[in-house]
Amino acid sequence: MTERTTEQTPVRVARRRRGPSLGDVAQHAGVSTQTVSRVANGLTNVEAATRDRVLASMQALGYRPNKAARALRLGRFRSIGVMMFTLSSYGNMRTLDAIAAAAAGAGYSITLVPVEHNTQQDVNEAFTRLLDQAVDGIVILIEAHIVEEADVELPPGLPVVVIDSTPRSDYPLFDTDQGQGARLATRHLLELGHETVWHLAGPVASFSANRREESWRNTLDEAGRVVPPVLRGDWSTASGYELGREIAARDDITAVFASNDQMALGVLRALHEAGREIPRDVSVVGFDDMAESDSFWPPLTTVHQDFDVVGRLSLETLIREIESGSGEPTMTVVPTRLVTRSSTGPAPR
Predict the structure, then answer these.
(1) How far from chain centre, in Å, is Cα 327?
(2) Residue 339 falls inside a structural domain
């Protein structure tokens, strides 16, 4: 019986090619590994010509610094967490865009954690998710009274800034001057000869809506005018439209201040459908100065908010605290301004 033997072909396992190391870059650039490390970590104690030579070698060899190792070594992750209640509002999206642009310019990434519902439980869960992401600091852009009431303890020393909040004493605060904007809108309508101004307010839980409503009420009181009952919306165009139908059915309402442009747009539609002329019969003012508000029909008189400035300043302050290790609780209020267009005019006789 002939015995057969089976010859097995050895299996070759492809080895992953090792990327260029710190030493490879140092050899290519003709410098020490310590110099390469300084350049990779963004330190400034390297001559400009040497830095350029090292960067050129990194690019030529395809070297990528190990960011994870550097983060562990420096205790910094170049990442910022953003807690935001809603992505649907115009103001939040503009502010987030400014935050992201400022972060990218400073070499930081953004980790966004939306808070689905304005409840303590959802805020607690959002904080937990953010802290699991190993962020260097947090921007809070939600209803701050929920944060204050929630059973949340931030790690000591973690930098935090708050946007659109009531005054606190422990974090830097940033916002536009909501009261000033509502006062400008209300006075504008009174100066046009309207006996009083009706107000479409935002949700009760919103600090922005509360500040605008309070300022509207105080402005009417100071002028000795009747304060009409508040009409309450939810920031949406649909809620503005439904309330606008009530307004359109009344001849005694000649001036309306809506707490945002989206609700104002709904009011304009309802007035058009009812055959009420704007501004001959009813004048309308919004709040935000959306990019599209000058294309409403008629173009909307509104209060301009500098969301870009608020987002940029808050992020710059947070990064400064992250990199310096110290910060002071301050409150920064960015002024508003009234943009007058064709939706407002003299009171009807």
Answers:
(1) 21
(2) no
